[in-house]
Amino acid sequence: MSEALTQLEADVRADLARIAHPGAAWLEPKTGPDGNPALDVLIIGAGQSGIAIGFGLMRSRVSNILLIDKAEEGKEGPWLTYARMPTLRSPKDYTGPDLDIPSLTYQSWHEARFGKESWQTLDLIPRAHWAEYLLWLRRTIGLPVCNGCELLEIAPAADGLLAARVKHAAGVETLYARKIVLATGQEGMGCWMIPAQLAHLPASSIATVADDIDFESLRGKRVAVIGAGASAFDNAATALEAGAAEVHLLCRRTQIQVIQPYRWLTFRGFLRHLSDLDDAWRWRFMRKVLEMREGFPQPTYDRCARHANFILHEGAPVEAARETGKAIELQTPRGAITADFVICGAGIDMDFAGHGELSRFAGNIATWADRYQPPEGDRNERLGRFPYLADDYAFTERVPGKTPWISDIHLFAIASTMSFGASGSSINAMTTAVPKLVNGLTRGLFRADVERHWASLSAYDVPQAVVARSARKTEEQR
């Protein structure tokens, strides 16, 4: 480790010590059915969101926590797997998992790692550097993480606890916790969509942008990419750079979307208070944002456009698809396109029942369609399938009383978007969204123990001073 990084870590410890007040422990671990202490909070996912949540809890003196992630250490999140852009798209000075601690920002780490001049000349953050920074952050603040550990099921347990059945290298075990946070990023509550018109194609001919694609095998092949968001362009560019003969990008819009709504909403008022609005306003804002979809920056487009064999088709939704020998023919309003391989970048649709860990209560998770009916012209069935969350990011019940324990399961992921706006998958929202979640978690833990706290106050008898009584009698006493 460099001298500069060693000094930075010392600065981090000093900064955190200066803002440690109040430092009093306030939680007593409960005992699980197995006789062992139960966790106060179990966090599923140790990517950027899980790290930020864990850090926020530790700063709130909730240290009896554990983060688990099915990926190996350093491979959490998309950064070194299916993220196929060279750099992050967020401006380099956006803060996030540092939770506004200057010495923990990416800038501080980058300057210590590569020098201040490197930061000054940096345009956007390389995604591999972001992954390295997240690992450094997690180690520096001392988060307890178990990698190679996959959540299989959540169920209720005795004494108000939740039972999380997990699988790791040593086998399957059950962890007990008072609260569980699903910090599961993009796929936590849904699945990457393959349009119905393509669903019958053989698995060897089609993939989503999140799949492990062998791009080298596409050398000399014709590739069609469905969708025109940033991830679709990233996959198109990766195929072109791997030597694909042709890459066709099919955009359903008559004009490709170049406006990025997530740049507009990056201000404190929206990030902090969208969730305080009534359902009608929340629906109106998020329908506008999500139907616009996420735009792409100029370098993302240029990465494709520099290739003469890149063809952009606007106003070309796929109407039908059929196999023609070893190829795929895609029918669009602008004619047929022939491809050897198809990559779908059509986004994510909610599919609670498709996630085994949610199977016990998937059918009773309330959705936006259960809670709010927008005006006729504002309806959107896909957005109506998003979960309708409480003000602490907790699941709510479709049928009250059927699964009351799900109020201790909190969702911080892309599926939180309809209830909270940019939050569980957005760097720029972390410094407002994570404190809101942590406040909800600690509020629930405090309320559940309120009788114990009252008894503690009632028994509190620690004197703050010793009053010495004078032995000299007053004139009146003589």
From TrEMBL:
InterPro entries: Auxin_biosynth/cation_transpt (IPR050982), FAD/NAD-bd_sf (IPR036188)
Gene3D superfamilies for the chain: FAD/NAD(P)-binding domain
Record keywords: Oxidoreductase
Signal found in the keyword field: no
PANTHER family from the UniProt entry: FAD-DEPENDENT URATE HYDROXYLASE (PTHR43539:SF91), FLAVIN-BINDING MONOOXYGENASE-LIKE PROTEIN (AFU_ORTHOLOGUE AFUA_4G09220) (PTHR43539)
Protein known as: NAD(P)/FAD-dependent oxidoreductase
Species name: Bradyrhizobium diversitatis
